Records
---
Amino acid sequence: MCGIVGYIGKDNAKDVIIDGLKRLEYRGYDSAGIALIVDSEIFTYKKQGKIRNIEIELRKVPVYSNIGIGHTRWATHGKPDDINAHPHLDCTKKIALVHNGIVENYAELRRELQTKGHTFLSQTDTEVIVHLIEEELKTSPDFFTAFLSAVKRLQGSYAIAVITLHQPDTIFVARKDSPLVIGLGEGENFVASDVPAFLSYTNRVIFLDDFEVATVNSNSVSVFNTDGERVEKKVVTVPWSLSQAEKAGYKHFMLKEINEQPRAVADTISGNLSWFRGESYLEGIDPNSFSRIQIVACGTSYHAGLIAKFYLENFAKVPTEVDYASEYRYREPIVDENTLVISITQSGETADTLAAMRLAREKGAKLLTICNVIGSTATREADTVIYTYAGPEISVASTKAFTTQLTALFLFTLYLSRERRALASDEVDSYLKELLELPSKIEAFLNLEREKEVVKKIALEFYRAKDALYLGRHVNYPIALEGALKLKEISYIHAEGYPAGEMKHGPIALIDENIPVVVVATRGKVLDKIVSNVEEVKARKGRVIAVTNPSVKKIGELAEFLIEVPEVNEYLSPIVNVVPLQLFAYYIADFLGYDVDQPRNLAKSVTVE
Ligand code: AGP
């Protein structure tokens, strides 16, 4: 997704903006640009490629300004090139604009503006916005009125930041469906798509809501609705430190975040124990007020939902469906006031997940969201929020968010099971005890240099593979899906996860001596079945990589490569078993020399549909 950074204050806006854009690189982009007000002119510089290209060029141009906007572009309309990069200027070159989102009525607006004499330089939808503001200014008493009028004509999604010579001490912003946050400093203020952009300056944040606009000066911020009425906003102190948002000595954010999982799981448990122990309320959700659950999510978060189905049906005895959010929206789901819809989303900004939540709300469902970002859209639209305390997840490939989602979902399941009398208190206590031991189990694996070396050796053996098959059963079948997703999204190797029992219905035709077959085969009720599946693969010369427990000797005899993980309760095993698969994908991508944290074509938060 695109990244936006704006600054007004006492420092050199160029440096603050470039620094902020670098902290948003994880969002994925293909070009970048900056606009500054310098000596009553708007200076812009934009290029296809990485931010560092701009930084090098800007060092040669001694420009100083205390107000500016910057952008990293993830192309939607118009190919990635210098012309289509943001910022975009109006015809008078007195207005500069950056945008994240999609203007769905841009073609009609473009035609209208062209008939009024506007000429367009780019192929982007974004450029129509800055010309629309210029056109509205002709009939408006001031720039803010023109800005508001233009924004009200937009259809689709937008996060917009504008600077203008008409009012050079103000940044104008607006948001609908694409996130935009305002950072409050001392004698300086910031706007950005996400908090890490300005976290090194301030952690005091205003989260704009849909259909809100704001004027940002160096000493004041005013928020309005699109009718121009003032809106009072809460200032949130985001509990993240800058170090949490930096690499802290790791080669990539992904490796750092894999290793942060013991702490993240522990923090997620402790961060939620208060309502679990009844010391506070899980507001908005009566545990006995619904008869069924529907889970909506995307990508890795969807895989967490598949595992949560096992938890909720096995322990809480609540019928549970799981849908890709992008599918849920169009399948005419049967939803009523007895349905609890749980959205699982790390960012809280995934467009498909938000749309599914809004559909469920329209149909009368209660909404619970499992989310990692305080103040994000999902958390403000749900009835109840259960936060994962994973800290900022920068790498596009989701790791600690996934294991903390499972942790939060297991805790919620225990809460429901107790409140609905589906489990006796002593059973709940016993499962909670096992959950509390989980961080140390994950830590135990991550501290086993020998095991990590094994994973690295296997990665070296297979990093040139063209295909990979991941197999799992029961509660670990979604781990096969997740392992395959990790591999394909950062190494670009075609990988697919499959229920091991399904292999004989087709995929077994893929098996030969060239394809690595990763099997999740830890102790549980279906272990014998998965042993048979491993034998089927071996019989066809398949190369088996098994994630298993040291006590499972049969797998040890069959697999060509063994990755041993600590043994835990079967239902908690996905939280441990996924870790070596994360590392396996990481090492392969690193051996291939790919951009592990910012894989091609991907974005950290998919805020467009
Ligand atoms: C997972 O590694 C990917 N980054 C992606 O599938 C991600 O899980 C998905 O886009 C959902 O994001 P969310 O959790 O922020 O909604």
---
Amino acid sequence: MEKKQMLYEGKAKKIFKTEDEDKYIAEFKDDLTAFNNAKKGSEEGKGALNCQITTELFKMLEQKGIKTHYVDTIDSNNLLVKKVEIIPIEVIVRNVATGSLTRRLGIEDGKVLPFSLVEFCYKDDDLDDPIINDEHAILLDCVDNEGELEELRRLGREINTILKPYFLDKGLRLIDFKLEFGKDVDGNIILADEITPDSCRFWDAKSNEKMDKDRFRQGLGSVKVAYEEVLKRLRG
Ligand code: 5GP
């Protein structure tokens, strides 16, 4: 399948049309950004690692009954995906307090939460992806009705219920992660975008070493070494 017109270029991916009007190609880039583009970098091979990690995870989730946009892995950096209209909400699921949750609410960093917390953020770089409630989401026309918000929450929790033990089995604590969903050509809500160490936080289960993009955000050294280790464990 060949790339046609580029539809969108984001911080970590480019999306292209293909000859099939219901399929897109997602190309994973080596670029790294943090703090809404205030910090920029790049590591050769990062995009390929994320493409392979997303492949492993989306295939596994499909086997567990989660509908995703994944169709096929074309090569090291490119996925064939279903055409979707992205819902402009980041669904954040948290098992352990860190990052913006500790900054916003003063909860102790590393505190295990008594339940999985689901938050919605409005996908808008100019506004720094602000946290929103259900009424904001309706007001902003992110979804058609409250039932769709319930569906996003339910899917976020269900995916967490699958991923948390899956990663723990591989020696990784799933601290938190961000999901994006889209509507396919039939209007069904399906998982889109990616699941990678750019969009999740993983801590090594023994040492609590950070194995995700916090290494770049916090200047803790190469991300590639950690992402390679994540992929190795997923495949192991
Ligand atoms: P926080 O709100 O603590 O910054 O992030 C919570 C989780 O969502 C982290 O796993 C983080 O990587 C992910 N996340 C939040 N916003 C974004 C974003 O704009 N892009 C990506 N790739 N991940 C995000």
---
Amino acid sequence: MSLQQVIQKLEDLYPHQPEFIQAVKEVAITIEDIYDNNTNYNTYKIFERLTEPDRIISFRVNWEDDAGNIQVNRGWRVQFSNALGPYKGGLRFHPTVNESVLKFLGFEQIFKNALTGLPMGGAKGGSDFDPKGKSDNEIRRFCYAFIRELYQYIGKDLDVPAGDIGVGGREVSYMFAMYKNLTHEYSGVLTGKGVGFGGSLIRTEATGYGAVYFLENMLAVNNDNLQGKKVLVSGAGNVSLHAAEKAIMLGATVLTVSDSKGTLHDAQGFDQQKIDWLKEQKACHKPLAEYIEKFGGEWLEGQKPWQFKADIALPCATQNEVDATNAQQMVDNSIKYVVEGANMPLTAEAIDVIREHHVHYAPGKAANAGGVAVSGLEMSQNSVRQYRSFEELDEQLKCIMRNIHDDAASAAQQYAKGDEPCVDYMTGANIAGFKRAADALVAYGVLN
Ligand code: NDP
């Protein structure tokens, strides 16, 4: 079956899963040549196998709110592929979570995890539970109830979940406690745990810092660096604020952050004190708009950050947050680099606009792999029951991000079509990640 036929089959089977189909198409258009040139891939039906999850676990989560009412949510774990190691990928708690979103995230995770070079398969999970406006007690009860359903399907050598949107250190710790309680086992079954009880230093910072390390490598290819660059960041969560923090440390001026309500613009740029204030504010679920009373700047209700002139854009909020119009706005505002901190933040049309205008572009599966890479390092620290220092882990993170950059760049160079002025990281990352998972499946024969 050709890649096009596989896509057609998926479109027929899953017409209500647009995010998943979008993610599959993005990979398919970039691997076509290597796929056609390797008869094993066709013989072993590798693309068909990699686009159907090994299994999807779907379950009901009953929990009790503060008023004593029973609430009911849906939970899922999409175990996509364990060709390269135990299933690994985050849990997302957000009302928009559904099977399409989790399948797209789990599918991307296969290639992202492959790119890290660590032994991890791909998975994703979560719930349509909305943590916004919930008390700490309600969050705790929900996390306990969620893992009470999921615990029998995960394990340190089987499937190791972590955080994502709506799931941070607090939630992972609650889920870890329930798992420990139910199984009488203290193991590295979840990553992103609190430091001091199994969690790894730099895991919290890793995705944002890693994205900026990836960007540094891109700039270095063009004999450039972050010093004096103006940066637009979207989102104000874990990835956004740590990406902003690292960019500032390396001499850039970060002009914006945003959330689902609007954009915060500070023409002076954020400094560490302002970033610390933003972290505190978001941790307490307080409005970003309160920033202007304390530090000045402007709050743009309902607007995105791409209307300002800058050199670099870091979309770090959520999928499809940048459409073709936003991408054109970036081009018009002199953006030269777009690095995805979020998963699939650019629509397919937005990617076309960026690439047509020769903007250097790094896809999330390469640029935001730092988070899962440090999760992999957390797993290995848990296995040997030792902790490593912040500095040692930071060096390892930098090294992994450099390797991902170089692997993607060299695959891009090997398979590039034409004389593109920019390194085609999208093609390079997809090919490098796909080949690792595909070659393992060929070696296994018919079994996964
Ligand atoms: P957080 O929950 O910490 O933050 C998400 C941020 O994005 C919040 O500021 C949120 O605003 C904003 N946001 C969410 N939905 C929208 C929307 N529809 N429009 C505008 N803003 C929105 O999540 P993370 O920082 O952990 O994750 C962000 C992205 O990075 C996701 O795509 C995730 O999959 C990806 N990622 C995360 C990793 C991690 O280690 N955490 C690892 C790799 C990728 P509000 O508070 O108003 O909802």
---
Amino acid sequence: MKILVINAGSSSIKYQLIDLESVERNAVLASGLVEKIGEPVGRIVHKTYAGGAEKKHVEERPLPTHNEGMARVVELLTDPAEGVVKDASEIAGVGHRVLNCGEVYSDTVRIDAKVKEAIRDFFPLGPLHNPANLMGIEVAEKFFPDAVQVAVFDTAFHQTMPPKAFLYAVPYEWYTKYRLRKYGFHGTSHKFIAAAAARYLGKAPADTNIISLHLGNGCSIAAIRGGKCVDTTMGVTPLEGLMMGTRSGDIDPSALEYVMDQTGMDIHQMLTTLNKKSGLKGVCGVNDMREVIEAAAGGNEMAATAFEMFCYRVQKYVGAYMAVVPNLDAIVFTAGIGQNSQPVRERVCAGLEHLGIRLDPEKNRVRSDDPIELQRDGAPLKILMIPTNEELQIAVETKQIIDAANA
Ligand code: ADP
């Protein structure tokens, strides 16, 4: 079954066409990124993988709206010479990544007018993403009229958090009137990791207890008990929790008023700074962990400090989540940093030996596209590295919706 996965941003469309039998049996037929939509010159990078060889096509052309971008993607996918499908009707489903639908949907749903209304209703709580996601849905409905359109919410996996975890200690009516609460993000990745860890450990998801560390440019940790999320670090927006590439993570809100008074910034400038100019970038000037580590190795003290701060905050949350996940099976590193950065894994684990987290430096050096174990022999807790795959998770859930509709 061919499923197109779409992640629409305000000026971009990321896509992947997956031929899917099951989570284990799948093939990416094409993937790509349409960007700079609405700018004078847009750009499309389209890749195909026939015979295992990546073939890349790049073009620049004006793309005034998402409509022109998607039209071009359809042409590339169905190109008589280089295309991967004969026509758009071969695509059975389109799975859309949607940021937030609050408490309305706690699972993946087939898109209808009600779902679109709910996505619109959450524009104020996802002002950058939800409108773009809805635009992506409307464009896809036009170009793939025969496909089942499915929404996979980035917050859905976290809907199992109990009130004691998701409520903020603020006037309660902020929750009842304004829907202010911790929603959590990266839910699709944490859900994929929860299932992949259970498969790897040979346990039923309902018996699997893990702490999932999604460390990429955005970073979040989820405490997963019996396959279900019981707490996570991101909040009403992705700004809360860990230190990230450019986001501050946790900060005393009074600091905002103080710095705004000192600098004359308004709240929008302040939030832009906390989202885009803070984190690793704010402390040492670069947001890519590879560059931070290189700079630190070259004697840059602020880079070394940023690295320490990043790892320290991960350690603190792992400790906190060990307190709320009894019978822990494993901590799992994933995403760009978690999968690739040996120094980060080493530094994080080095502070947690007293909690049973004992990394084997040799195993930590191994690179793998498959799940691997990194703990020392005889250690009480497993340390896993599992590559995440949000697109595959979206495709799998889209297929489940289609299969259920056909059953
Ligand atoms: P996103 O959150 O944008 O999806 P990714 O999960 O792809 O991000 O992670 C991107 C980040 O992963 C980069 O910013 C970089 O810091 C980090 N990264 C990738 N490879 C390495 C590596 N070998 N060592 C350290 N960090 C890495």
